[in-house]
Amino acid sequence: MQMKAIPLVAAATLAVVACSPPEQGEAPAPPEGAGETADERAPQDRPTTPPAEPGDAPPPAEDPAGRVVPLPEGGQPWGVAYDPASQQVFTALREPARLAAYDIAGDEVRVTPTPGAARMIDLVAPGGPLLYPAETLDTLYAIDVPSLEIEQEAPAGRGPHQAVQVGDTTFVTEEFGHAVRALRGGETVARFTEPVQPGGLTATDGRVAVVDVVTNTLFVYDAASGELVTSLPAGEGPSHVVPVGDGKVAVCDVRGNAVLTYDITGEPRELDRISVPGRAFWIEADAETGTVYAALSNTNKVAQLDVGQDGSLTERATVPTVQEPVSMDLDPNTGTVYVAGYAQSELQIVPPTAFGN
Does some domain include residue 307? Predict the structure, then answer.
């Protein structure tokens, strides 16, 4: 396998240029709520806790399932996005800020510098673009696939963590801006300030679900109107959320070593909770089959769960992973899972047979 470094080049004419990254030393405008503590901004009935982190993982006691592709040494990979159109797997590297693109057919990794470091990355659709929230620059980039040129950029608040597109509107969590920002045409059209420290988010069935990582709450918004539908308790220390089909979502509870399911249509409600053998820091799902995968970051495992029609959860299997799995993505056509190992800068390719499928 070969590894190549390729410079990232901005598109000659951007579809939208809402703002350029701040100049060196230029401080962004303070967000709404800046200066307030988390406890001051939290709902009175929901005390705050520190965000639940992945936790340190020991070296794997078992060989990782499938095969392992080395990424640049010390890269600290986080977000993973599989693109079925280009047959590439993208991984956000943080040290320094880069995108690693693994070409499945060629078994080759190319590395492209990026303007700032991101944690979670998501494709708008097969073939891109790739939503890249550069938390170090407070900017959301849309990156073309497969060229990896910047198509658009927009201000995204303080510490953007994850973004999702619904129609012509992109929602992005401002983790340290105490808000969820709605962008349309590269311009901010709304900010929702109910979450204190929003982390993961997703969208399904006309609703947007947002995890608040310090009040341990799931906020549900109407995607069209932006109105807050409700907020629900979300375990002891949640981080991310994913659609699992039929208007349901699953939340990974890192501190609680658990996965929870919710119906966010109509009157949203919690459906089920299941314990898992480790800190469930990231979650992925095949909504068509109702299969959930939870990355257990401190025990070097991925748990595979079944989601019933009623939202009930059943553990099907666990497989060994690379050290400290913090993110992953799924090829729903083959059942292959791509796992980022943070500790040793690795990409693990787990075939469905490893889960007994």
Answer: yes
Please give the average per-residue pLDDT across 239-249, as a whole number. 98
* Structural domain range at position 246: 2-6+66-355
Supply φ then ψ for residue 7, to 5 degrees: -70, 145
What is the average pLDDT value for the chain, to the nearest integer?
Answer: 90
Q: How is the chain split among helix, strand and coil, in percent rounded to 5?
A: 0, 50, 50
Q: Write down the residue that tokens 């129609």 correspond to.
A: 167
Tell me: pLDDT of 12 over 50: no
Q: In whole angstroms, what is the distance from residue 286 CA to residue 266 CA?
A: 23
On the question of pLDDT at 21 being above 60, the answer is no
Q: Supply the DSSP string of 123-176, one letter for each residue.
A: ESSTT-PEEEEETTTTEEEEE-TTT--EEEEEE--SSEEEEEEETTEEEEEETT
Antiparallel, parallel or unpaired: β 187-192 and 198-204 = unpaired
pLDDT tens-digit readout, 140-173:
999 999 999 999 999 999 999 999 999 999 999 9
Number of domains in the chain: 1
In a domain, residue 16? The reply is no
Whether residue 25 is contained in a domain is answered as: no
What integer pLDDT is reported at residue 4 of this predicted model?
44
Cα–Cα distance, 274 to 151 (Å, whole number): 41
